[in-house]
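Hey, sorry to bother you again with one of my protein questions. I've been puzzling over a protein and I'd love to understand its fold better. Take your time with it, there's no hurry, and the full record follows here:
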Amino acid sequence: NGEIDPMLFVEYSGSYDQFVRRVDSEYDVKFTEKEEKIIEFVSNIIMNGKRIHELLMLQMLLNEGAFTSNEMREALNKLGETYKEKDYESSCRVLTKEFLNSASDKSKYGEVELVEEIANADGVMKRASSFVDKLHNINFEKELQTLIEYGICRYKDMYDDHDENNLVLYQKYSRKDACRLLNWEKDNSAVIFGYSFSAGTCPIFVTYKKSDDIAKTIKFEDEFELVSVEQEIRSSKVFSWWTTSNRRIDSPDAQRIIHAKETGLKILLFIKKSDGEGSDFYYMGEVEPISWQEKTIENENGDKLPIVNFKLSLRNEARKDIFDYFTA
C-alpha cells in the first residue's frame, strides 16, 4: 500500500521470505537451502527493478521454460522498450552469474543455477535441469513469480523513464547497479575508487560531504562550482571534480576524460551527500569536461602529489531540490 519499500525487507534479511521467517513463528512454508539461495539471488540482484530484462527473462523461464533474443525483443517492444544487443548480452551474463565477480557473491551464489545455453543458431537459453527440479515445489515457484511481479511493478513505477544508459535521473544506484546497467562484463564495483573505465563508460562516484577522518590524498572538494565567493552562489550546471592523486594532465585516465567527446566515452556523474546515506548515489546524468588544470595535494607526510581538477558541465542542470540538498 505504499507504506514501506519492500526492498527494505531484502536489505535487512536477505529476502522477504527470510524476513517473514524471522518475525512470524507461524510461517510454515519450507524451502531447501538451495531454493533459498535462488530466492536470495533473485531478491538481491534482479528484483529491485532497475532493469526489466532479467525480470522478463526469468518470467519466460518460469512460464515457457526458455527464451531467445527474438522473444526478448518482442517482450520489450510490448512495453515500449528498445531492444539492444548489449543489454541482452549483459542480462544473460547476470542470469548465468558470469557478471558476479566478488569472492563473497561467488561463494554465496555458487550453487545457484537458473539457465543454460543450447548450442544452436537460435541462441536458445533454457532452464537449467537442477532449476526445473526445484520448480516442482509449488511454493517455491509461487515465491519466484511474486518476486518477478513485484520487480516488474517497481520498474514501471520508478525506472521505465530511463535514458539510453538504462539510468533514471535522480534515482539512486549503487556501484554494482552501475556496473550492471552500463553493461560491464563483470561487477568491478569493489575496485571503483571514485571512477573507473569500462564498456565505453566512465562512472564518477562522489561523496559531497567527506568524513573528517579520511586520508588527505582523497580529502579534496568535489562540489558544484562556486561562482560567487562573497555570496556563496554555486552553479547547478558545472561540477568541480578531482581525479585521484598522482595524476597529471598527460596521465592516461586524465587524457581519456579530456578526449571523451572525440572517442565517444560516456562520463556519468553519481553523487551522495555523505557516507551516512549508505552505498547508493543519486544519478546526475552525463557530464562533459569543459576545462582542466593540474594542481597538487599534500599526503600525510606533507609531500606534494600531482592531481587534476576538472570542470564538468552537466547535460541536465541539477534539479533544484537535489541541488539544494547537496549544497545546503
Summary: Strands lie at 66-67, 115-117, 125-127, 172-173, 201-207, 223-228, 233-242, 266-272, 281-298, 304-314. The longest strand covers residues 281-298.
